[in-house]
Amino acid sequence: MRCPYCGSSDTQVKDSRPAEDSSCIRRRRVCSTCGGRFTTFERVQLREIVVVKKSGRRAPFDRDKLTRSVEIALRKRPVESERVEQMISGIVRQLESLGEVEIESQRIGELVIEGLRSLDAVAYVRFASVYRDFREARDFSAVIDELENGGAGAALAPDSGDAEDA
Fold this sequence. Notes:
Elements: E1 11-19, E2 24-31, E3 37-43, E4 50-52, E5 58-60, H1 63-73, H2 81-97, E6 102-104, H3 105-119, H4 121-131, H5 137-149
Parallel strand pairs: 4-6
Antiparallel strand pairs: 1-2, 2-3, 4-5
Helix pairs in contact: 1-2, 1-4, 2-3, 3-4, 4-5
Domain ATP-cone: 49-139
Zinc finger (unnamed): 3-34
Protein name: Transcriptional repressor NrdR
């Protein structure tokens, strides 16, 4: 592991412990060259996933991009970070368990919508507004009505855009 301060590859692990929901290992490291201390997280990756965008472009799946999208939807909402991390880990596990190397961005968006629905209604509507490219106030109304009536799916089909761009 390279030191983020000086770029040296001579670093040592000082402490390791399970983090989050035990889906990753948190390691405290120290650089032998400059003495800088930093933390890394190690996760199991079952397979490389490629996201197929609506435009047909392909890009490697980026967990951090998914996390940022979810955090934007959850900004200033009272949701514990552990629950968010569990949701994201669950989405990644579902994607890996599909057994497919290429996954359409729409499928990822659907999984995020399902997860946000159970976490926070406001975040759900925020994400849906970007995911479905809302243009008018009635678009919000339709999703809120669907949320309140307990229906699922049909009102959330994307009109345009990529889920990962949300």
